[in-house]
Amino acid sequence: MGQGKQIFRSWVPEWLIRLTIFLVLFPTVMLFALSTANVNAATGFYGAEPQDIQFSMLVYYAALVAFTPMEKRFFSRIATKEYFLICMVLQVAVTYWCYHTRELPALFICRFLQGVLNCGVTSICLTLLFSRLKSEHARETGYAIFYGMILCSGSLTSLITAPLVDDFEYNALYKMVIYSFVPGAVLLLLLMNRVHLVRRVPLYQLDWTSFFLYAPMLIMLGYILIYGQQYYWLQDPRIIGCLIGIVLLTITFVVRQLHRKRPFIHIDVFKSRAFLFGILLLAGLYLIRGSFNITTSFFATVLGLDPLHTYELLIYNLIGIVIGSVMSTRLVIRKRPLQFIWLVGFFGLLVFHSVMYFLFTSEADQSTFILPLLIQGWGAGMLLTPIVLFIISSVPESISVSASTAGVFIRYTFFGMSTALINYFSLYFTKTHAMRLSDGLSGADNGLSERLHTYQGALESRGLMADQAARLAPGLLDKAVQKQAFLKYAMDYYELVAILILILMLLIVATPYIINRTVINVKAKQPAAATM
């Protein structure tokens, strides 16, 4: 890698360099969460189902995961300034295509291309970020900054886009992203010299075959996770076809990697027990982190908060993430035991889910949730960076990039699995509790009559005629039943998540010999482009 004075022009101050890197990196990270910034607005704009919007995000993620092993070859061959310009121009063009399309197939193609191009921009930004941190623990700090941004990306993107969705059509978000690319991109092109940040390697023997095996497999996996519940799993030939395709592609892909001199992903990483333990924790963290969507749904569905007020409340969660990320990085740098860091982090998540179990009520004040949201963000911030550093450090340096790539695959899989579990249990628990609540009601029930009269009186007090109020009262009762069913579902799911957290904490306590044998060392290890 070139020295700092060679990368940027000599007259550029350090603060402007770091600001420019952030201006480029932030909209790149924000693009990932854009699909689900406002699912209701997206479904209305495209005339689609919520599952279609979720799948578009997984298509983006799949492209990011699949192209990671190949991206470093392009990065090492093309001068960084030209490579950045190519990626950014194509990214703007594809995003502009997203702005103009209303067709789902075209949207899926655009999102896949965005994921591929995002690899290049992220790789440049990470390498530049690491080059500007001159301390002894620069890489630990760099990982903490990047993963803190990843944890904040969903809530922060939704907070920024909420006013736009209220005032404009949904596709205006893509125009906003295009505009947000411009300041950072122009500044970076003006400030950088024409250098190669890594050693040049010729573009020969690119393993496109492995890419075209890996990418469809990931997309089909995402398709099953998102649409499986909707199509009744193995009762639908599309799900069966995808499952057969995944098995065949996976077998072919693994066999190919075992027989190649330069494999797409080194299968040897899975021989390390520490690596397997690390990805187990990472998988659990993503399942736990996914349950946070239930809290945001609770704010909107039960408490009736609009998107802007919901995401303003999540600012406290973002503050918690920042505090947790800073604390975990300081503890890692000071060589504190990973067992302690992880147990503290998971305990924070356990406290959040336990408290929310009792806060899921039909009426509550917004200030009640400030402390739980802080704790949830703090717990997540305490966990993600140390777990990733542990995974990368658990294998030899020669295959550390494959370890990072395999970790991205695990994050993709369990991100999708978390979405699938929420889709399944929301339908199962909500339906079960709604039926139980409805069975407890009958026309002869005095409590039911009183409740209907209460609703009717409330409607009449708002100016409705008595006959109109009588017709609308049962609808209000049904809405109340659905709210109660949602609350019961949320409590049941958070109870399951709390049990999962306890199991992970017991595993951490029971396996000190695996954890203590791995020393965090990322000084000579280049981050993968798709570490998100």
Please give a structural write-up.
By secondary structure, this protein is mainly alpha-helical. The protein is 77% helix and 0% strand. The chain contains 20 helices and no strands. Helix 11 (273-290) packs antiparallel against helix 16 (370-393) and helix 14 (315-333) packs parallel to helix 16. The longest helix has 45 residues, at 466-510. It is globular, with a radius of gyration of 25 Å. The chain starts with a helix and ends in a 16-residue tail after the last helix. 44% of the residues are buried.
Quick summary:
The chain is an all-alpha fold and 532 residues long. The chain is built from 20 helices and no strands.
Keyphrases for this structure?
disordered N terminus; single chain; 532 residues; mainly alpha; globular; disordered C terminus
Strands, helices and their partners?
Layout: H1 4-7, H2 14-33, H3 39-46, H4 50-77, H5 80-100, H6 104-132, H7 138-167, H8 172-191, H9 208-227, H10 237-259, H11 273-290, H12 292-301, H13 307-313, H14 315-333, H15 338-359, H16 370-393, H17 400-439, H18 446-461, H19 466-510, H20 512-516
Helix pairs in contact: 2-6, 2-7, 2-8, 3-4, 4-6, 4-9, 4-17, 5-6, 5-8, 6-7, 7-13, 7-14, 7-16, 9-10, 9-17, 11-16, 11-17, 11-19, 12-19, 14-16, 15-16, 15-19, 16-17, 17-19, 18-19
